[in-house]
Amino acid sequence: MTTATKVAALLGPGDHIGYEGQWRTVKATKTDIGAMGGLFVVVAWEEGGTERFRAGDELLVGAPPVTG
Question: Averaged over 21-34, what is the pLDDT?
């Protein structure tokens, strides 16, 4: 499997992110402003739930592992 990093601000639907020991698929993103004025990206996962990342955070992206 090939992996790379992508800045959170550039995430989009369908991206596969390695997060908390598992692969998750981005369902939707939106921006948010933090209390100190910083830019954040709120990611909704296909698998359920959301997570908030600083816009400049680098995340591991790639194809999810093939199972079966």
Answer: 93
Give the C-alpha distances (Å, rounded to integers) separating 40 from 11, 18, 33, 52. Answer: 12, 19, 6, 7
- Tell me the average pLDDT across 27-47: 94
Return d(Cα 19, Cα 36) in angstroms, integer. Answer: 25
Closest C-alpha among 10, 65, 21 to residue 43? 10
**b/e per residue, 17-55, with b = 16+ CB within 10 A?**
bbeeeebbebbebeeeeeeeeeebbebeeeeeeeeebeb
Chain centroid, CA 60 distance in Å: 8
Which tokens in the block code for residue 26? 């981005």
Which two three-digit tokens encode residue 40? 């954040």
